[in-house]
Amino acid sequence: MHYAVAWTLLLWLSIGASFGQGAIPSAESHLLLTQSGRDLYTELAKRSPKALTQIEKMKRNLAELIAQPLQVPLPKDAGGGYTHEQHKANQKAIFEAGVLYKLTGEDKYAEHCKQLLDAYAAMYKSLPLHPEKKEQTPGKLFWQSLNDAVWLVYSVQGFDAIKSYLSPVEREYLKTELFEPYVHFLSVDGEETFNKIHNHGTWALAAVGMAGYSLEEDDWVQMALKGSAADGSGGFLNQLNQLFSPDGYYTEGPYYQRYALMPFVVFAQAIANNNPDLEIFEYRNGILIKAIYAAIDLTYNGHFFPINDALKEKNLTTSEMVFGIDIAYKETGDPRLLSIAAYQGSFAPIDAGFETMAALTKSEAIPYDYNSIRFRDGKEGEEGGLAIFRPYSANSKDDAALIYKYTSQGMGHGHFDKLTWLFYDNGNEVIRDYGAARFLNIEAKYGGHYLKENNTWAKQSIAHTTVVVDEKSHFEGKYKVASAAYPTEILYDVSEPNLQVASAELAEVYPGVKFIRTMALVQDEAFEYPLVLDLFEVESEEAHQYDLPLYFNGQFIHLNSPIQAHQNQLKPLGNAEGYEHLWNLGEAQANAELTQFTWLLNDRFYTWSSQTDSDDKLILVELGAHDPDFSLRNERGLVLRTQSEGKHYFLSALETHGTFDAKNEVTVNASNQILELKLITRGAEKIIQVMTKDSGIREFKIN
């Protein structure tokens, strides 16, 4: 406490009765940074001060802020604008100033934290909804209530850390003028979002629950745990039941798994600290810890697989993952997590972060083992899944990953594509998924919102590596239809390291059309690198046009059919459902037996081989048509188009081969091995037969 003069005590005695016995929050810490964390910090400062450079940076940043006037503007701007970014900066300052006071005991940090909180308390009750409010979920400090919830998650931690500095009257002032109305806005005014099974709801209930613990308001805690009615119909526990599969896969996909982890793990840590009897990290067979491990496995080179609405820049170094890794290490003591923490190069300034840093300074880390894994989707694990195949090899040049997506819709952030794939190799995304069309918090680009091209392009099926029927997106691009349908896994088998296979089917994509796709990662002596095999079967009694796009990353080298380039005039490939955004660069008739297309990416060659007929068409496309604001990336693809009646299948393979040494002008194995692809059946067995140049016929059973 920075003062305790007689008049303050008299004032408190005179008004205390009106608040009720025990209504004033105590000075004890209830959240994520306690005396245990401070003790670890003190030990590290003595033993390994270099490990605490992050804290020293926080001190320098706060010194600059303390020397300046407070900036707490009236909310005005949408995401990326001045007021939006200032309130975000203030939430960070409140949090970090609280942390530094807790660690150092220096009053200047607590005073800065207090002044900021007081400034918000003075304005909050009178704030209307944000002038740039989003229609569905408007906020007050920010354009959407999601950002308001994030502000409270961070800021209440700052308050919790300085409670011992504040007098009872000051704590009560912040409670009644800031935190109570804030909690009311999130949980009562925003009841629909608060009880929603969605990451917006997760942030809101984490904010309210953490405020409840810090301010000793059990009603808030119970609402956060069980929903507004405190009957389990909403709340944190129901979120854990509904949003994760039994394997820890988050239904919106890896990008949002990363984002949603923050409120899940910080609130869980607060629950564990205050209600250890709930055994929250053991809840539902340890679902939260599974989710943190899943987030790690859903990456390549540290970056998340960009399915659904995803921005490709996000990786394991984000703050959400830093908190997640540190808390997971605190709960498990798994030394593999320390290698992820070392990659991150930072730690969460909470008890768990200091435990992680203490272990790192003792060199206790061991490498994280990235293996093949399949994540089931849906709360019961029965709504498809995501298979990740990685080579079983100690050879560093086999650093590849095949991702086969046969998940459910993924709620509002899901895309209308089923049975799609990506491929990574040599540190690069080789077969692409576009992810989201958005410039996050860049106000000049539609205020930081998802762009209209997210709906017209990124979510459409032609934007993905899957079969599109009659130029129409899967499920007609209708959310309710897509949400009611999901693939059924037929096979997932990694028991044979040299032939890893997954297969799934979906009958509801188009009326009267059934899809079955089987994908395999093969390691065979005939091939220099792991080989991808792809069998896409389409069952229909009607005649249809089928398009199978391949979005490749690299430089066009060779196509074994002469292509007629459109050199004088470009036209879009179609008129709607994503086709309007693709320039038709040129066309070719497919090879009568095997189409082969080779490209170069950095120092490796890739060849896609596909069984074709001379009536099939090949279309080279480039993204960028009908894009007047130049918002889309100019990526290229090759579309295989066929007209078929009845059953049809696409049989393809992707080879990695050779090297290109630009420095020394040396090229090795620029040509591929495959000469012929065949699908053969022996009884109930399906076998892909591959004729190679140097090793004859190779056969791979895929069911």
UniProtKB/TrEMBL annotation:
Keywords: Lyase, Periplasm, Signal. Residues 70-292 form the Alginate lyase domain. The keyword Nuclease does not apply. One of its GO terms (molecular function) is lyase activity. It is found in: Periplasm. Pfam families: Alginate_lyase (PF05426), Hepar_II_III_C (PF07940). One of its GO terms (cellular component) is periplasmic space. Residues 376-642 form the Heparinase II/III-like C-terminal domain. This is Alginate lyase. It comes from Echinicola pacifica.
